[in-house]
Amino acid sequence: MNYEDIKKLIEDMGNSKIDALDIEFPDGVKISMKKNTAPVAQVPVVPMPKENVQVQNVQIDTTAMKEEKKDEKDEKVIKSPMVGTFYASNSPKEEPFVKVGDKVKKGQVVCIIEAMKLMNEIESEYDGEIAEICVSNEEMVEYGTPLFKLK
After folding, report:
1. Are 143 and 33 contacting, i.e. CB atoms less than 8 angstroms apart?
2. What does the DSSP assignment read for 19-79?
3. 58-70: per-residue pLDDT in tens?
4. What is the fold of 72-150?
């Protein structure tokens, strides 16, 4: 199985409703993928007594929630397209591809992820400014792990 086949498999799984996938090929290659899914909290419904119920006017200040949603919309996240090891530069002696505060363009290389002895250059999907580097150099990352946050 070559790199393009693996990349296509990852994309197909990302676009499907499947949460986990395990494949073992006759040549001994094993692929195991799992999506990052947050559990949904279930709130029990408690019936209210019908006697002596008073309804009060309740107001909720939604300005803080609107500002938080606005901040989330303004923030763009570059996520890992694969499982592997994150490298901020080509070699330990070189400067990192990007630092906090750097402006990046769509298609610009921002890091390398080593997967199965292959060095994969990861390009920015957006134009923007690096607001946060979410992982450390040589840290293992999973599929979908946030790598960079952009403003």
Report:
1. yes
2. SEEEEE-TTS-EEEEE---PPPP-----PPPSTT----------HHHHHHHHHHHH-EEEE
3. 555 666 555 555 5
4. OB fold (Dihydrolipoamide Acetyltransferase, E2P) (2.40.50)
Question: Structure pTM?
Answer: 0.51
- The amino acid that residue 78 corresponds to is I
Average pLDDT over residues 103-126: 90
Tokens representing residue 131 in the block: 């607001």
Q: How many CB atoms lie within 10 A of CB 68?
A: 10
The domains of the chain are located at 3-34, 72-150
φ/ψ of residue 110, rounded to 5: -115, -20
Q: What is the mean pLDDT of the chain?
A: 79
Q: Which tokens belong to 126? A: 């957006």
d(CA 3, CA 8): 9
Q: Which amino acid is at 63?
A: T
The residue written with tokens 């609107």 in the block is 66
